[in-house]
Amino acid sequence: MVMVTVTVQGEQLELRPFTDADVTDYYELVCDPAVAAPAGFTPAHSLTEAEFLLRQQSKLPQIFAIELVAEHKVIGSIGLYERITNAGEPATQEMDLGYMLNGRYWRRGIMTAAFVNYNNMVLKRCNCDG
C-alpha cells in the first residue's frame, strides 16, 4: 500500500514499504546519532549494518518508508512497533508509534504530515473512529 500526502510547505511525501534499493538513503538516516539515539538504537557504522537494519524493517508490514517525492529520496520511517514490558516480554495488544526523520528535513512539517496520513491509514484498516 502506498499513501501520498502533502506537507504544509507543499512538499509531496509518499509512505510506502521499504525496498532493498533504499539502502543508501537508509544508511544516511541510521548513521546519524541525532536520529538513532531518540529512536532507541545505536547508529550504523557501515553500509553493511544499514543493510541489516533495513532487512529487519522490511519484515514489518506496519513500518513505512517516508519518501520525498521531488527528490526520490527516503528521508525517514514511521510505523507501529511491538511494545516491550519492563520485564523484557512483549506486551499483548500494545504497540508504540516509532518514527525517525533525516535531520536535514527537520522543522518542515514532514513528520506531522506523515503521522496524520499514517494515523488515517491505521484507523481505516481497523475500522476505528478517529
- Helix-and-strand structural type: alpha+beta
CATH architectural type? 3-Layer(aba) Sandwich
- Looking at the structure, the CATH topology is Aminopeptidase
Q: How many distinct folded domains?
A: 1
CA gyration radius, whole angstroms: 15 Å
Q: Tell me roughly what share of residues is in helical segments.
A: 25-40%
Give an overview of the whole structure.
With 130 residues, the chain is an alpha+beta fold. The protein has helices spanning 23-30, 33-39, 47-58, 110-125; strands at 3-6, 12-16, 63-68, 73-84, 90-101. A five-stranded antiparallel β-sheet has the order 1-2-3-4-5, with helices on both faces. A hairpin with a 5-residue loop joins strand 4 (73-84) and strand 5 (90-101). Helix 1 packs across helix 3 (47-58). The protein is globular and about 45 Å long.
List the helices and strands and how they pair.
Elements: E1 3-6, E2 12-16, H1 23-30, H2 33-39, H3 47-58, E3 63-68, E4 73-84, E5 90-101, H4 110-125
Antiparallel strand pairs: 1-2, 2-3, 3-4, 4-5
Helix pairs in contact: 1-3
Which descriptors would you attach to this protein?
alpha+beta, 5-stranded antiparallel sheet, Aminopeptidase, 130 residues, globular, 5 strands
What's the quick description here?
The chain has 130 residues and is of the alpha+beta class. 33% of the residues lie in helices and 30% in strands.
